[in-house]
Input
Amino acid sequence: MIVLIDGDCALCVGLIEWLGKRIPADILTAENISIVPGESDWGAELLQAAAITDFDSVVVIRDGLVLQESTAVLALADVLPKRWHVLATMARIIPRPWRDALYRYVARHRISWFGRKEMCALESPIASVTYGPRGKLTRPHGRD
Output
């Protein structure tokens, strides 16, 4: 799973930090998950390859599928403990157009509500699977 985020958004970086505290250690490996800022060279290539021209905070690429908006956020539950799977399943009951409308509303206001925080400020175990200035993940060749 590759997670592309807005690396300058405090809400997005906060989400990644939150995930880093909850993803079990055996899953928090570069083989299972990679966090990539959309503004990075690798992020830009991934977005271009996925034909995404309007990147808006979170995109998940998993098993060749490109997930966006609320579906991308809910897909993150797959790497969390089971109780989060239940919550994500319940959220999927809400019709996708409604979930996506809420997602877009929050995405549109996220900077004014939460401010900016650079991805390089990460200090948690999630840095081991993060690509970028302070992340420890190196860019794999031929991975998409």
